[in-house]
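User: Second chain of the day. Same drill as before.
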Amino acid sequence: MAQGSRRQHPVATQTEPAADPKTWIKRYPDVPAADSREIIELRQLPLVGATRAQLFWLLGVRKLADIAALDETEFRSDPRVAAYPDGSIVDAFPLIQGYAKAITENRALVYGADPALESVEGPLVYFDLEFNAGVHEIFLWGLKRSGDVPVEQWFSHRREDQRADRERFITLVEEEDPLFVAYGSLASDEVAIREAARSHDLEGSWLRKMRFLDLLKRFIFTESPETQRVYLPVRKLKCEHVAVFFGYKKPRSIDVRDGYHALKLYQRYKRRPEPSIRDRLCRYNAEDLYQTELIFEGLKELFRQEE
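Assistant: Same format as last time:
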């Protein structure tokens, strides 16, 4: 285990089974609180929340470098890990350790080229939506072709105009068959499109033809040690944070914080259409497109170096 873990283990205060990690951790009174500086330091990794960070502390881990240095066999066989109620940490450990190593060494760790980048076909279109999932409403479509070309955006707040935007998107899919390169689309944009299509009775074969490459799920965070080929030295996996690793600098003019903030601004716009609000939303959406392109090109370069 990590240096310092050979000391006498803290004594549990109870022996009966614990129903959840929080209850289990309370058995060890020496473990710092979830909001303590020691535990927050260990929570700066994907897949590591408060109780997992406390478990690592219990094992003698005091910094991310200690996680990077852990022996996986010893980790799996430690009785405290076996007793920890969240058994999924054992399967997640290789991913956690991969990110810990990348952050500790402050460099991307690449394990072979990814065939997904070798089989890219069709025109590439970087893609991002702003939408209201509750009512299946897409109010801003952002598209960008590869290279130094202008961003194309469709912004609408009236139902009939939003239907026209969907029909325009269908035409694009059917006529060009592009590969939409996006970040986190599998759980957001793709779902929004399908639900909006059903809402507007626009379902058809184009939904099956629609092609996406989700950079988050395909490369950045696959959720599987067997398919994860790159570990970036980033503590948060949001698009903006990953883009910073590849050299992105956020313009000061962008004041929309996230998708929820964008939705609230849009709802305000519907009550009183102000051009300044529309401009803020479009600038925010465009930055997501620039970030996505930067990440995609950066990943290609990283994998190219491994060929």
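The chain is about 50% helix and 10% strand.

User: Great, on to the next one.
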